[in-house]
Amino acid sequence: MTKVSILNLIPKFKDESQMDAVGRAVSLAQFADDHDFSRYWIAEHHNSPAVLGAATDLMIGHVLNNTKRITVGAGGVMLPNHTPFQVVERYATLNILHPGRVDIGIGRAPGTDMQTAKLIYRNIYRKEDFKNAIKEMQMYMSDEAWDLDVAPFPGAGSKIPLTILGSSETSAHIAAELGLPYSFAGHFAPNTIGYALGIYRNEFKPSKYLYKPYVMLGTSVNIAKTKEEAEVLKKHAENISLQFMRKERKEFMKLDPDNEPELTSMEKFILRTSKGLTIEGDIDEAAKTWKHIKEEYKPDELIGASYIPETDVLIDNYKYFEDIVLNG
Asked: With a threshold of 0.85, does the pTM exceed it?
C-alpha cells in the first residue's frame, strides 16, 4: 500500500499574522498525527515573506512538541546553506528530544535567490560537493564517529534516516549510487518524473540503509467535496502559481473574485502548459488522477503540498487525499 504524507512550506497570507500561519501548520500536523499519515515535512525557503520555513529545524521542533507519533522532518535541508556538521548536530538534538520521530530530506538547491544564498553560506555547489556532503553526514551519524578527532555531539551514532530530494536526473543518479530513498518533486518538474524515476530504479545499489529502491513522489493537492468547491481551490492554486512565476516578494493573496489578477497571454500559456503534478477536483476526479499516477509511476509514498488559507478547508482537502491514496 502506498504511504501518504504532507509537505508544508508554512504559507503566510495577507492580513494574517505570522503566528496565524504557524498555528495553521500545527493544526494540520495534529490532524496528520491523529490519522494515518506517515510523515510531515517542512520545507526550507529564504527571503520570502510568503513562507515561514527559513529556520526549518526550529519549526520542526515546534511541530514535534505539539504532536505525539508522526515522523516530522525537513523536506528538505538545502545543503548549500549549511555545513553537514551543523545539520547533524541540530537534527540529532531534535532526535534526543523526540526519539525515532525525526528524519532529514536533503536537497541541492539553495531554496532562495542567489543573492540571499551568498549571505547564508556559499554560492558554488556541484554534484560531487553534494554527494560528498551526504557521505560526510552519514559518517558523522555512524557509530564510527565516536572515534573521530572532531565529531558532532549529539550526532555520533544517531543514524537519522536520510532521503535525497530532487527534480532532475542528477539527484536520481546520486540517490541510486548511495542506496538512499528518493523524493522527486513532481509538483515542480512534472515532465521528467518518469525519466528520473527510471534512472533511480535502474541504477539503484543496495546499501546498509536501504535494500531496494524507495520512491516518494511530490504532488500538489487541492481536493474538495463538490465540483464547485474544487473550482475555487483550483483558481486559488493558479493565483499562487502566478505569484511564484512573477517572483513577487510579498505575502500570498487569498482568493478575491472581485479583484482577480490580470494575466498576460504568456502567463496564461505558462500556467496552462507547465502545471506541476496535481491531484485536484472533486473526490471522483481526484481518485481518477491518483489511479493514473499510481499506474504510471508506482510510488511507494505520495507527499502532498497545499496552499489553502482556511484551516478547515485545508484539513478537509487532506482528509480526501488520505482516503483516496490509502483506499484507492
From this structure: yes
